[in-house]
Q: What sequence folds into this?
């Protein structure tokens, strides 16, 4: 197993060390930033700095563990981050691509920019 320097992660597909800043971050399908959204400096373990287990910051999303493409979430509070991918990066009650869809029985409350229970809105008469 190759050891990568700090601020690098091991890409198991290319079998090379890749600088964190070389990972692509996209918003609305267009590259907007490079290296943001991924934390590969949070651990000293070489095994934790492999592509599949990189930490994704809250507000960001990646579709698969093997992807170096990270996307900024359109509803940032629904993306909780973590060292996984897909729906595992979504707040409970949020789902779909980029955690942008509220599950049945929930709605996107504009005031919090999070999926919340419809019954709370119905009880209080507040939808904002």
A:
């Amino acid at each position: 197993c190759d050891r990568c320097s700090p601020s690098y992660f091991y890409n198991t597909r290319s079998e090379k060390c890749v600088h964190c800043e070389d990972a692509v971050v996209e918003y609305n399908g267009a590259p907007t930033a490079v290296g943001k959204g991924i934390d590969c400096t949070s651990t000293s373990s070489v095994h934790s700095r492999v592509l599949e287990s990189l930490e994704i910051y809250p507000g960001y999303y990646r579709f698969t563990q093997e992807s170096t493409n990270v996307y900024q979430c359109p509803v940032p509070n629904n993306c909780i981050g973590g060292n996984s991918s897909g729906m595992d990066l979504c707040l409970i009650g949020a789902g779909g691509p980029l955690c942008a869809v509220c599950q049945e029985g929930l709605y996107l409350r504009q005031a919090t920019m999070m999926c919340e229970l419809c019954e709370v809105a119905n009880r209080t008469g507040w939808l904002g």
Notes: Helices lie at 118-124. The two ends are 52 Å apart (CA to CA).
